[in-house]
Specification:
This protein has a two-stranded antiparallel sheet with strand order 1-2. Helix content is 77%, strand content 10%. It has 2 helices and 2 strands; from the N terminus they run E-E-H-H. The relative contact order is 0.05. The chain has one domain. The two termini are 22 Å apart. By secondary structure, it is mainly alpha-helical.
Length: 97
């Protein structure tokens, strides 16, 4: 917020600057890095579970891959629903006066 003085009358003016832009960019980069880290961890855990299921149960690899894919779809669908519900809730709160 900056104050502009013209002929002895002070007026407040909002001057959007680089600080706001930098903060937004930093939040965006942090969110992207968080999602990337989560995706890598999910893939690593999935690969480990796939290997474990194939070794323990004696499933052939194609069957284990199919089972893992179905499990991943179920888990990720529920997470996506949860995230969308939270986003809608946040948006609804921000629109309140």
């Amino acid at each position: 917020m900056a104050v502009i003085v013209i002929n002895g009358k002070a007026k407040a003016a909002s001057l959007p600057g680089m600080a706001g832009l930098r903060a937004t960019a930093a939040r965006t980069v942090r969110r992207a890095m968080d999602y990337t880290a989560a995706a890598v961890m999910i893939c690593a855990v999935g690969a480990a579970l796939l290997q474990l299921a194939a070794q323990i149960a004696g499933f052939p690899t194609p069957v284990a891959v199919t089972m893992f894919t179905v499990m991943a779809v179920v888990v990720l669908r529920s997470l996506r629903k949860h995230w969308r519900t939270r986003a809608r809730h946040r948006r609804a709160i921000s629109l309140l006066p």
